C-alpha cells in the first residue's frame, strides 16, 4: 500500500507492507511540513529514504524533530541515502536523528577535472574510516581520485557520535 502526502515544498510517499514501512521524502522541509499530518506506522522495519531532501528551514527543522521523535517511540528507524543537506543539519543539531541509525548517506566530492559528485557511502562498508573522520576514497570518471569537499571531522561527526553511543 502506498500513500502520498503533499506539503508546501515537499512530498512524502509512504510505502507500507506487512513488516516494513518506508518513508521517502522529497523537497524542502519548511513551515508547511506538519508532523501531526504524518502517520507513524509501527512495523518491524522502518526506513526513511532522504536522498531528495534539498534543505530545511528553522520552522521545518522543528517539525522534523517532532516527527522523528514520534517515529522513534516504537522502533529504531533506519535512514537511507541521507542527502548532503540532511547530513549538514544532523551534524549541527543531533536531535534531527532521534534514535535513528544512518545506514547510508551522500557526501560531497570533487575532482581536479572540474566534476562535482555526491557519492553514496554505506556506513557498514566504511565504518573504520568514518569513525576516524577519514573520507572514503572514490575514483572519478576521468581516472583521478575524487577529493572530499568539506571538513571530514564535521561532516562525519554524527556517524562518529552514533558509533560511540552504540559502543
Task: Describe what you observe in this structure.
The chain is built from 5 helices and 9 strands; from the N terminus they run ββββαβαβββαβαα. With 167 residues, the protein is α/β, with parallel strands linked by helices.
Topology (SSEs and partners):
Layout: E1 2-6, E2 10-16, E3 20-29, E4 45-56, H1 58-71, E5 78-80, H2 84-92, E6 101-102, E7 104-110, E8 116-122, H3 123-131, E9 147-148, H4 152-155, H5 157-166
Parallel strand pairs: 3-4, 4-5, 5-6
Antiparallel strand pairs: 1-2, 2-3, 7-8, 7-9
Task: Give keywords.
six-stranded mixed sheet, alpha/beta, three-stranded antiparallel sheet, 167 residues
Major sheet: size, sense and barrel closure?
A: 6 strands, mixed
- Name the shape in a single word: globular
- Helix content percent band: 25-40%
Q: What gap, in angstroms, lies between the N and C termini?
A: 37 Å
pLDDT averaged over residues: 93
Short overview:
The protein has helices at residues 58-71, 84-92, 123-131, 152-155, 157-166; strands at residues 2-6, 10-16, 20-29, 45-56, 78-80, 101-102, 104-110, 116-122, 147-148. 28% of the residues lie in helices and 33% in strands.
Amino acid at each position: 500500500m502506498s500513500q502520498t502526502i503533499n506539503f508546501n515544498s515537499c512530498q512524502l510517499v509512504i510505502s507500507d507492507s506487512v513488516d516494513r514501512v518506508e518513508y521517502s521524502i522529497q523537497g524542502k522541509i519548511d513551515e508547511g511540513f506538519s508532523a501531526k499530518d504524518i502517520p507513524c506506522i509501527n512495523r518491524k522495519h522502518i526506513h526513511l529514504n532522504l536522498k531528495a531532501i534539498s534543505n530545511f528551514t528553522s520552522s521545518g527543522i522543528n517539525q522534523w524533530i517532532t516527527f522523528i521523535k514520534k517515529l522513534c517511540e516504537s522502533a529504531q528507524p533506519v535512514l537511507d541515502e541521507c542527502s548532503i543537506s540532511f547530513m549538514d543539519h544532523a551534524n549541527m543539531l543531533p536531535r534531527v536523528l532521534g534514535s535513528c541509525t544512518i545506514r547510508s548517506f551522500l557526501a560531497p566530492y570533487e575532482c581536479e577535472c572540474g566534476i562535482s559528485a555526491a557519492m553514496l557511502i554505506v556506513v557498514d562498508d566504511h565504518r573504520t574510516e568514518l569513525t576516524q573522520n577519514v573520507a572514503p576514497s572514490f575514483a572519478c570518471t576521468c581516472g583521478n581520485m575524487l577529493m572530499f569537499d568539506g571538513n571530514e571531522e564535521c561532516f562525519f561527526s554524527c556517524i562518529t557520535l552514533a558509533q560511540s553511543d552504540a559502543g
